[in-house]
Design brief:
Blueprint: E1 2-7, H1 12-24, E2 27-32, H2 37-45, E3 53-56, E4 59-62, H3 66-74
């Protein structure tokens, strides 16, 4: 299962999220919201205004959520 992480440069929560995903061996695609206006629109349409936003299939969340990352990695 692969995830998409929408992140921003110099975002502590983004770095923490990617670090935990890396440690768990989860495949993900990182998309920089500051460089991709279409991605920013996607995140806004999902209802989020803060990074990171993690999307996995039909599930998504915002912020550093180690509990949800753990669930993702358990599947």
């Amino acid at each position: 299962m692969s995830a998409i992480v929408y992140s921003k440069p110099n975002c502590i929560q983004c770095v923490a999220t990617k670090r935990v995903l890396d440690a768990q061996g989860t495949d993900y695609k990182n998309i920089d919201l500051s460089a991709d206006k279409n991605a920013l629109e996607t995140v806004i349409q999902l209802g989020y205004r803060e990074a990171p936003v993690v999307v996995v299939e039909d599930k998504h969340w915002s912020g550093f959520r180690p509990d949800l990352i753990k669930q993702l990695c358990a599947n």
